[in-house]
Design brief:
The protein is mainly α. It is built from four helices and two strands, in the order βααβαα. It has a two-stranded antiparallel sheet.
Length: 90
């Protein structure tokens, strides 16, 4: 039953992270990517859906653009927060 429910932002956050790091010759470790995804997702509101395609089809282009901007902001926040916390520990 619950296996068909997901947070729509999960896919968007992972896509954004892969876009950010795709130009690096050495990709970041999976643990680091997971940490970034968790921080970014905690920054965003939950948006649970049963079918991503159905949800996206009900959004206007402006609403979809807003979602992508929110995700980009959340990923930037996650990267800054993670870098700051790492520097504080060192």
């Amino acid at each position: 039953m619950l296996s068909s429910i997901s947070n729509y932002y999960e896919r968007l956050v992972l896509e954004r992270l892969y876009d950010v790091f795709k130009s690096e010759h050495t990709p970041p470790e999976n643990d680091y990517m997971d940490d970034l995804a968790c921080v970014a997702l905690n920054y965003l509101p939950a948006r649970y859906v049963r079918h991503c395609v159905d949800f996206a089809s009900h959004l206007s282009d402006a609403e979809l653009d807003d979602l992508h901007i929110e995700v980009a902001d959340a990923v930037s926040f996650a990267m800054a927060t993670t870098q700051r916390r790492t520097a504080e520990r060192e």
